[in-house]
Specification:
By secondary structure, this protein is of the alpha/beta class. The protein has ten helices and twelve strands.
């Protein structure tokens, strides 16, 4: 059985207990979703799924996190959530190493923790719910190689320290190995701040840098790059974005962004809480352990919520 099928099967088994004849959820149960940039559209969408699942289960839920990207502030929010002794926590680590001891302490205290969107695989989190980020990068890389016709220079926008973005970049690099004529000109850390992506693109365009394509490994920079190119009437530049914010989809419709890689943050929030609540209701004998290496583990290692390439040809199917 392959990893994907095993993950889906394990997730199904986790969910099977929901609504069964065993213990039932209480309205006093409280769950938290902790993220590093709570106000951006991506996390608002994840929050919608999270709260929808809580409403269906008749439990309490709250999404917390800084209003702009801040891994240290996310750590503080996680600590506050743990102190309230919730039934469980979903977390998307902005900095996995920074959060690792906090996750381990929460699990040691008997609080189930599941990572979503961005993983902390060295921690004691139970498992990860989100995108296969390496495959997402490969998907974008194959399109990029095709659009550049095997030759060109590319600038990537990322947030340093986020494992999911590192995996996406690795996927792009793997896909581009077959086209040595495509070079990575720069991997720019925009620190979760859209203004830095805007300013960097402006700098490159104004000095007429030898750049043929821009790739966003996160959700914010794609529309910023498109805005700069539009203002400067810079033609012939390729943009591949990440996620499906309204701005990104508008730029695809206008033809400035060639395509974006759609994730499913709503599903991450929704399914993440459903599985977390089931674990909280029917806790195993121990929450700590090397579950990834245990052939009788009650948990999967990874639940893939899926990705899709979105361009003008299928834009209508995802526009809200």
């Amino acid at each position: 059985m392959n990893v994907m099928k095993a993950s889906v099967l394990a997730a199904t088994l986790i969910m099977a207990g929901c609504g069964g004849g065993g213990p039932s959820h209480q309205t006093t149960e409280k769950y938290y979703l902790v993220c590093a940039n709570a106000k951006i559209p991506y996390w608002q969408e994840a929050g919608e799924g999270f709260l929808r699942a809580a409403k269906e289960l008749k439990v309490q839920a709250e999404m917390v996190g800084p209003e702009s990207y801040d891994a240290a502030a996310e750590k503080a929010e996680f600590q506050k959530a743990v102190a309230k002794k919730p039934a469980g926590i979903l977390v998307s680590p902005g900095n996995p190493e920074m959060l690792r001891p906090e996750i381990d302490a929460a699990v040691a205290a008997g609080i189930p923790v599941i990572t979503i969107d961005s993983d902390a695989p060295q921690s004691q989190r139970l498992f990860f719910v989100g995108t296969n980020n390496f495959q997402a990068g490969q998907m974008g890389g194959k399109l990029l190689a095709q659009m550049l016709k095997g030759k060109g220079r590319v600038v990537f926008f990322t947030i340093a320290g986020q494992k999911n973005l590192e995996e996406r970049l690795n996927g792009y690099e793997a896909a581009l190995e077959a086209t040595p004529g495509i070079k990575i000109a720069e991997v720019f850390d925009m620190k979760g701040d859209a203004r830095l992506a805007f300013d960097k693109t402006t700098e490159l365009i104004e000095k007429k840098a030898d750049v043929n394509a821009f790739v966003s490994l996160e959700s914010l920079s794609g529309s910023e790059v498109a805005e700069v190119l539009e203002r400067n009437k810079a033609e012939g530049k390729i943009i591949i974005a990440m996620d499906t914010s309204d701005k990104t989809l508008e730029w695809i419709e206008k033809g400035r962004i060639a395509a974006t890689i759609m994730q499913k943050p709503y599903t991450m929030g929704y399914y993440g809480l459903r599985t977390l609540a089931e674990i909280a209701l029917n806790k195993p004998a121990a929450l700590q352990g090397k579950f990834a290496a245990d052939p009788r583990s009650p948990f999967p290692v990874f639940i893939d919520t899926g990705t899709m390439l979105v361009d003008k040809s299928n834009l209508g199917s995802v526009k809200r």
